[in-house]
Specification:
By secondary structure, the protein is mainly alpha-helical. The chain has helices spanning 12-25, 28-48, 50-57, 64-72. It has a domain at 39-73.
């Protein structure tokens, strides 16, 4: 009896079959939406982390104005 399962790499035939299925549904518009979504997530992450969040915190209760200004740039 094995403690760990056997690991096998996928065969090329199955990998190409999966890629062909994805390729049918992959359009330019969907790629653009995916890139825009990644950029939005990255911008929100950058805005909420590190020095940018510390700079916004210095404004106190009025911190929503600089945050909105950073998000629109």
């Amino acid at each position: 009896m094995r403690i760990l399962p056997r690991f096998r790499l996928p065969r090329w035939r199955s990998v190409t079959r999966v890629w062909q299925r994805w390729q049918r549904h992959l359009t330019v518009a969907r790629c653009v939406y995916a890139v825009e979504l990644l950029l939005l997530i990255g911008a929100l992450w950058w805005m909420c982390m590190g020095s940018c969040a510390a700079a916004i915190d210095r404004y106190g209760e009025r911190g929503d104005a600089p945050a909105a200004g950073n998000a629109s740039q």
